[in-house]
Structure formats: C-alpha cells, structure tokens
UniProtKB/TrEMBL annotation:
Pfam families: QRPTase_C, QRPTase_N. This is Nicotinate-nucleotide pyrophosphorylase [carboxylating]. The lineage of its organism: Archaea, Methanobacteriati, Methanobacteriota, Methanomada group, Methanobacteria. Residues 17-100 form the Quinolinate phosphoribosyl transferase N-terminal domain. Involved in the catabolism of quinolinic acid (QA). SUPFAM superfamilies: Nicotinate/Quinolinate PRTase C-terminal domain-like, Nicotinate/Quinolinate PRTase N-terminal domain-like.
Length: 274
C-alpha cells in the first residue's frame, strides 16, 4: 500500500472504528456505491479501486478517471465487508474529491486556451504529502504537471538569485555546474534580465508577476533582437480566468498557475450503503 494512503487510514482509524464495531456485525456483507453531488472531471478512481481491492472489497463498477460527471452520477459500486467499507469511506472520499477538484480546475483552464498554441501548467504549490496525487490530477485534467520534485530540473528562483549580483550570474553558474541532461529555468522580473537570460540560452525564462502588457513588451523586444527562439517563455503569478487571455495573446509558451492545486475546490461525493 502507498505509505501516504496508509498514513491517511491510520490517521482516520486511530485505535479503531468504535462506532462500526459497536453497531455493525463483524461478518456483515453489503453493497455500497459512491455518487457525485457535483459536476466536473473525475480523478482518483483508479487509486480508490486499488485501495478497495487491497482490503478485499470487490469493485463491481467504476467510471474511469477523466470522465465528465454531473450531479447524481454513479461513480463506483462495491461489495464487501460492511466494517471495512466504513473504515475506508472517508479516506477514499477525501482523496477522490480533492483530486477531482484539481482535475476539474485544470480542465477548465485548459479549455480557455484550447484554440491557442500555449501550454497550461501546474506548480509545486501542492498540499503537503499529496503532491503526487495533485500532479496526477493535473494530468487527468489535461494540463502539464511541471516539476514533480526538486530534482526534475533546475529552477532558479528569487531566493537563489538573492546571493548573486544578477540573474545572469546565477544562470551562468548553473550552466557551468549542471549536467547537460537537465533543463535550466530562471525566474526574472525585468525586461533587461529577460533579454540577458534569453541571449545566454536559458532553456526556459519565467516572467514572474508581470502584467500581460509587460510580457508582450518583453516578447516583442526578444523578436526584434532575433533571439526569441533561444528560450521558452513562461509566465506565472496572479493569472486568473479574467486575465489569462492577455498572456495568451502576448505570445508566451507556458502559463503556470499555482491556484490549480493550492486553491481548487474539492468536488462533493457521497458513499451510500444499500
């Protein structure tokens, strides 16, 4: 069993489910089902299915991850020991509801730019210990996962740059010390720093907390200098459904949105025993 899910179960169980042990016969077999009280994109059913089966609960039916769901949709039906199903109930619901919320937000933002040559990405602003589940949900929702962990790629941020004279100095040191097999991304806040880092062929230059107009100014200047092709241009910070098209129309390659994971609303599901 995944150790994070094992921890979730142990946290929920404590020293035992005293309610079920007091009320439910030990060998009682029941049918149960999970229904949606919301609409969106489903995620986490594969994980829930594996968890039920690991505890000898038979999964009779389930929708696949990525399915579009509406209120009252049957998401999964199971058959097994009543105490076991009740023990697993809150963990499977909490995890699948959160993952489906992230997937739904990701799908929504992806739909906003579907006719444009730009990629939406998540960030590492995930819930502690839930990063891999959040990242999987982003993928189900149709957006790029960005980095899974610190060893995926070099991402030079403001706190790294703080110990250097300029972003360019940090970039050059990274290029000198990092294997060719790892991409290097650097965060910049000004037009001049963006130009210098693109001139020196950072794989990705992130324009941090710039307005759509400021981003367009940077890209226009890179094109005038004939260096636009040197680097992918990513934007991040303060991007919402109300202003996202300003960034899309500026000509960026990647739009990363931390809110997909740190602010997504969980969907609402319910487990019912027949």
């Amino acid at each position: 069993m995944d150790r994070i899910i094992e921890y979730m179960l142990e946290e929920d169980k404590g020293f035992g489910d005293i309610t079920s042990e007091a009320l439910v016969e030990k060998d009682l077999e029941v049918n149960a089902y999970i229904i949606s009280k919301d609409e969106g994109i489903l995620a986490g059913m594969n994980i829930v299915k594996d968890l039920f089966e690991e505890f000898d609960v038979e999964v009779v039916y389930n929708l696949e991850d990525g399915s579009k769901i509406t209120k009252k949709d049957l998401l999964m039906s199971v058959k097994g020991n009543a105490r076991t199903i009740l023990l697993l109930e809150r963990t499977v619901l909490n995890l699948s509801m959160r993952m489906s919320g992230v997937a739904s937000a990701a799908s929504y933002y992806s739909s906003l730019v579907k006719n444009h040559d730009v990629r939406i990405a998540g960030t590492r602003k995930t819930s502690p210990a839930l990063a891999k589940f959040d990242k999987y949900a982003l993928k189900v929702g149709g957006v790029d996962t960005h980095r899974f962990s610190l060893d995926d790629m070099v991402l030079i941020k403001d706190n790294h740059i703080a110990v250097f004279k300029s972003p360019l100095d940090a970039l050059l040191k990274a290029k000198a010390n990092v294997s060719f097999s790892k991409k290097i991304e650097i965060e910049v806040e000004t037009l001049s720093d963006a130009i210098e880092c693109v001139k020196n062929k950072a794989d990705i230059v992130m324009l941090d907390n710039m307005s759509g107009n400021e981003v367009k100014e940077v890209i226009d200047e890179l094109e005038k200098l004939n260096i636009r092709q040197n680097s992918l241009i990513e934007v991040s910070g303060g991007i919402t459904e109300d202003n996202i098209m300003d960034y899309v129309e500026s000509g960026v390659d990647i739009i990363s949105i931390g809110a997909l994971t740190h602010s997504s609303r969980s969907l609402n599901f319910s487990l019912k025993i027949e």
